[in-house]
Structure to design on (83 residues):
């Protein structure tokens, strides 16, 4: 089976825009429980989330985990926009 590896630079993406799109899809009325579970599993794998804190929304948990993982790559302006 063939495979493809893609390297991306985080500076090329507006992280806030991507997270908002994920939240929009997650909260969409068309997103059933199966789709929500797939998004949650994807987020857990991508951001290496051990568990979702029940007091935080999925988007907030993803932002926190992303910040912790990539804090050295985020510029102050980007951080201010996320907060």
């Amino acid at each position: 089976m063939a495979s493809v590896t893609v390297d991306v630079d985080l500076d090329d993406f507006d992280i806030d825009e991507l997270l908002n799109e994920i939240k929009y899809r997650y909260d969409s009325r068309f997103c059933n429980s199966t789709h929500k579970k797939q998004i949650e599993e994807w987020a857990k794998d991508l951001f290496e989330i051990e568990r979702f804190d029940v007091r935080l929304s999925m988007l907030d948990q993803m932002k926190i985990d992303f910040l912790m993982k990539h804090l050295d790559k985020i510029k102050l302006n980007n951080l201010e926009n996320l907060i």
